[in-house]
Design brief:
Elements: H1 2-14, E1 32-33, E2 40-41, E3 46-47, E4 52-53, E5 58-59, E6 64-65, E7 70-71, E8 76-77, E9 82-83, E10 88-89, E11 94-95, E12 100-101, E13 106-107, E14 112-113, E15 118-119, E16 124-125, E17 130-131, E18 136-137, E19 142-143, E20 147-148, E21 152-153
Parallel strand pairs: 2-5, 3-6, 4-7, 5-8, 6-9, 7-10, 8-11, 9-12, 10-13, 11-14, 12-15, 13-16, 14-17, 15-18, 16-19, 17-20, 18-21
Antiparallel strand pairs: 1-2
Length: 154
């Protein structure tokens, strides 16, 4: 009982994030190699056997990757993000928060998809693009630089 109280107290007072890449459930400290590609999968992450996770890629925290998605190079999926379909996340791209990437979308370069953002269809997000907030990119949308916070782009 004291241990639970202390953990709750620490979270409330110090703002400890138990779901961070360097935290309790992060891939760097806990996890196992994925059977298809050898990349790191955190203990609370869910990754289908049909998914490819490259040897330097990570799926952390409570993230979910299903379908025939590919997580390549040094890409990171974390938080409660979901990647599905035939989506490809590669290079140094990060998908995090409660964001969703699906369809045949490709997120590459140093791009980041976060918060509640949604990327679907044949969308291409690359370079240093940042998709966050409640932004929706679908169909054939393309973004290689800049930031999108909200709105629907096709």
């Amino acid at each position: 009982m004291k241990k639970r109280f202390f953990i709750l107290f620490a979270i409330l007072v110090f703002g400890i994030n138990l779901f961070s890449i360097d935290g309790f459930a992060g891939c760097a400290s806990q996890g196992k190699a994925h059977e298809n590609g050898g990349g790191m999968v955190g203990i609370y992450a869910s990754v289908a056997s049909t998914v490819y996770v490259g040897k330097n890629a990570q799926v952390c925290d409570g993230a979910m990757v299903i379908g025939f998605a590919r997580i390549e190079d040094s890409a990171i999926i974390r938080g409660f993000a979901k990647v599905s379909g035939r989506a490809i996340i590669k290079n140094n791209a990060i998908v995090e928060g409660s964001s969703v990437v699906t369809g045949t979308a490709v997120v590459s370069g140093d791009a980041k998809v976060s918060d509640m953002a949604s990327v679907s269809g044949n969308t291409r997000v690359s370079g240093d693009a940042l998709i966050r907030g409640y932004a929706i990119l679908r169909k054939n949308a393309t973004l290689s630089t800049g930031e999108i916070l909200r709105g629907v782009y096709q």
